[in-house]
Amino acid sequence: MAQKAISVSQLNNYIGRVLATDPLLMNISVSGEIANLTKHSSGHWYFSLKDSGSKINCFLASMRVSKLRFDLEEGMQIVAHGSVSVYEKGGYYSLNIREVEAEGEGALQIAYEKLKAKLSDECLFDEEYKKPIPSFPKKVGVITSPTGAAIKDIITTIKRRNPLVSVLLYPAIVQGDQSAESIARAIKDFNKKFKDADVLIVGRGGGSIEDLWSFNEEIVARAVFDSKIPIISAVGHEVDYVITDYVADLRAATPTAAAELAVPHIDNYIDRINSCDPKRMYQALVDRVNFAENEINHILKECNSNIKSIIKDYENQIKLLKLDIDSYNPLNVLKKGYAAVKDENGKWISSAKDITKGAILNVMMQDGTVVAQTIKVEKKNGNKKGKDA
Length: 389
Description:
The protein has about 400 residues and is an alpha/beta fold.
């Protein structure tokens, strides 16, 4: 008896469930060469992994693309970690990638050289942007793993060379997927919180190119370049060169060497003091005092000159105000031959209508007052020239 037929959708759905529950296919790593790479506008990437005999379709979601440590290119040899699933509508299976590693150091070296060339073209390596490392620092910051050997070596070296120097550890993840963001964020936060720090050591101990890769990330390189505090890059061993070595203000071969470059030995201070001639030191102090006195005198002279100028301006303003006030003084008008009139009660009279026949008037002139009695009042009223009161 023939077996009952199923639909294509049922078949693909069944295969999908089988693949989704297979322990091997749920978490598999596949090695191959990238081919037919398509970077979709949605942010997803599609490509094939192939070897000499076969190929498999691959899908890399946009959220995974943003976490790549290097750019993917045609012909690049990689190891893709993910799971196998079926696209039911199309009836084909693909590898859904969670993580990508470069197979061997060749791909990473290509990514390294590509970023190095890009940042060099943007002048991030130029000497004109390098900040000087302070000769006698008081506070040294360190961004690294709090549990690694690097921090122990740095602290031991600094305290041996100068126990008076303060060491501020700002912990960061220095290896793995989240390390680049952690280091970049630590640099930015340290600049905000410890603006008085003299120098900042950023690095970690040795390891493979994969272990050190976070210091080859663009986000870290730009954080180093943007730092207001001078940075010493201290990554790996003497033979290891990472991107931050070129961007930093100074490169150290090892974390221990970074501590030595950051902090001079305290004996250098003592030798410098002992080598000083007391007479020359005294003369230098006298010169400094004299210089300060001259500066103070110069400032005082400028202040006095400014004060005198301000006083002169006020005096001129007062004179102008006095002239304005005098121009409005009625007594000053009398000097021009005019007279001012008050009644017998001392009230100013400004109109003929306020005067009656026989009224006693006080006529004020520039050289005295005349008391008079009104005989006649002529008032202007329309066409009439006046009449007796």
